[in-house]
Specification:
Blueprint: H1 2-19, H2 40-56, H3 59-67, E1 72-81, H4 88-101, E2 106-108, E3 116-129, E4 132-145, E5 151-163
Parallel strand pairs: 1-2, 1-3
Antiparallel strand pairs: 3-4, 4-5
């Protein structure tokens, strides 16, 4: 009897302790990237701008006239001279999306069977604009013939500069 009372009391204490309120752990969101950080929107904008220009060049029409079909393009090697400042996988994905959105070429997931390879490099460096710290990004793209390695169209390059000044707060919409 004594042991059953002891077990009942011990069980009650354990239940009460388990039902007590626990302090909720607050999970803090990671801090937002600085305004100068390269983000997905930057990759998308640059990809749209560069590849929009690339598919307007005569290489597409010349290939269609010669073969009677649209060219097959695959993403080739990209070098990262940004020391990790640019997410290369994300950037390659945006390039593939922008290239396919043009509708004038067939984009391949593999270089096997490709007529052309889109190669490139991304880079970044820190600098200043007056006294304002800035980060400069350089994106270079080259389209080469997959069989010969010859450059198919002049290379494209774009430079973007972003600074770390705080962006002005957007006013809240009126109720």
């Amino acid at each position: 009897m004594r042991s059953s009372v002891f077990c009942t009391v011990l069980l009650s204490v354990a239940i009460l302790a388990g039902c007590g309120r626990r302090a909720e752990e607050t999970v803090q969101a990671p801090p937002p990237p600085p305004p100068s950080a390269w983000v997905q929107a930057d990759s998308a904008k640059v990809a749209d701008e560069l590849l929009g220009e690339m598919v307007k060049r005569p290489w597409v029409g010349e290939f269609k006239e010669r073969t009677g079909r649209v060219p097959k393009v695959a993403l080739g090697a990209f070098s990262d001279r940004s020391k990790g400042d640019v997410d290369l996988a994300l950037h390659r994905g945006e390039l593939a999306r922008a290239l396919a959105a043009g509708g004038v070429v067939q984009v391949l997931d593999t270089t096997e069977g490709a007529d052309f390879l889109l190669k490139g490099a991304v880079g970044s460096n820190d600098g200043t604009d007056g006294e304002i710290p800035v980060k400069r990004y350089q994106i270079d793209l080259t389209l080469v013939d997959a069989k010969t390695g010859d450059v198919a169209t002049p290379s494209l390059s774009i430079e973007k500069q972003k600074d770390d000044r705080a962006l002005p707060a957007t006013p809240a919409p009126a109720p």
